[in-house]
Amino acid sequence: MSAVQSTGLALPVEILIVVMESLDLHDLINLSYTSKFMHALVNEFGWSTYLRLNERPSWTLDSARRRWSSKKQVQYNALADRSWSRAQFIARPLSRSWAGNLQPVLAVSSSRLLVAAGRIIYSYGIRDPLAEGHGTRLVYEGSFSFTLRPGVPDHDITGITFISDGGEDRTVCLGFADGYVEQFKLPVHDSSNWRLRIAVSRVPEQAVHFHERDVVEDISYSRNSLLSLSSWGSVTLRDLSSSSALTTTLQLGVRSWSSHLSMSASTPYVTFGITCTAHPTPLLVHHITPSKISSTPSVVLDSPRHRPSAVYGITQPPPSSPLGPSDQLIVSGWYDGAVRVHDLRVSGHSVSSASGEPTVLDPVLTLQDPWSPESVYCVSCGGGSASFVAAGTARYSVVAFWDVRQPTKGWSVHAPGNDSSPVYSVILESSRLFGATQSRSFVYDFGPGVTRDTYPSVPTSPNRIIDRHLRLNHDGVDYYVLKYNHNRAGLQI
Hints:
Elements: H1 13-20, H2 25-32, H3 36-53, H4 62-65, H5 70-86, E1 90-93, E2 105-108, E3 112-117, E4 120-127, E5 137-147, E6 157-162, E7 171-176, E8 180-185, E9 195-199, E10 209-210, E11 216-222, E12 225-230, E13 234-239, E14 247-251, E15 256-262, E16 269-274, E17 283-287, E18 299-301, E19 311-315, E20 329-334, E21 338-343, E22 350-351, E23 359-361, E24 365-368, E25 376-382, E26 388-393, E27 398-403, E28 406-414, E29 423-428, E30 432-437, E31 441-445, E32 483-485
Parallel strand pairs: 5-9, 18-23
Antiparallel strand pairs: 1-31, 2-3, 3-4, 4-5, 6-7, 7-8, 8-10, 11-12, 12-13, 13-14, 15-16, 16-17, 17-18, 19-20, 20-21, 21-24, 22-23, 25-26, 26-27, 27-28, 28-32, 29-30, 30-31
Helix pairs in contact: 2-3, 3-5
């Protein structure tokens, strides 16, 4: 391509595009103001290049983003990042309170959000935004009730994950409290029936996994492989892409809480969170070969406190996180109220063990709310600049947030309604956090353009104790929540 004389720079356009790859957002904006040619060049190549190098993963925005221009996507991300830096968001409950105290779990895809509470799944469809550059809308689609034959007691859903099904986003695997892991294709709701019943048969040979006389504590899915973990350490791994694939099993033999499967790593592995009794630490990494899961830990992820503990939640950061490649980083929530980040690449933090023993790694980063000693039940990563960690804690419906670039400047917020419940499940996207307490599901939205119609309206009753603290602000969009900083002053923000 010929040199660009109109800009005063005798440089080929290809070189200018390469230069734009090293520019930050403010530099690109300033460059686009220098001339009409540069404005057109940034619009054509600059914004798309910036998006490629600064990903903001978000299942619920995926369908809308495909129709936005690159510039609109950058604008949305920039406004959301600014809200994250100021801890400014819209808080909304997604449902009325459920009957009883439940332990819900969440799953999200590009088509819908699923909230499993008890034996019922509540489905929220993702719809186009009202205007370009605004967040997608969530619309309540209906519920699915999973029931056994008459006379047989039903069992709660304890784990849920979407399974690849060609883009329909209707195939899920569910873990149950009676040890079964089953695969279902969710039917479509219609306007005449928002409450669908799904009959569940109990045949161990037909189940995806079966943990006899045990509770399915957690399920994890990665690259067509499904792993389930029971309360007392029974592990089953199966490749769902082939009906003839071998099923691999492992017995940890200890009280187990959480798992995270990473089949995308150069050496696939699974991380287990347990209560440390036989093991010196509650966070173990087992490598996976084509034929089995290693019977002993390959890596032990330690805590400097060296005291009995447990790990209840495990996740990994998104690919564009400032922490680095996500398949080598493990983020975990601990009984002592800390969130710890371990880096499998960092040999400088390893402690040489005796021959035949696993490598021991110390955390590279520890995050904690100094005002709350409560255990961390769940963790998720994403948020502004893909640099935030969110943790659901064991009491008072508190979600804690930290920016890993400024780990000492965290903040926490109570869920709408401010009840005494734990936060059992969280999913953090680029501009949204979805969470669930024992009473209801909720969302914090940091993106621009949130209106009354972005989320379902939730009728409340002042006569119900659980609704007494659920207060809609005067704007009719945002609900009141209590926030506080992690600094020693503890000031409300």
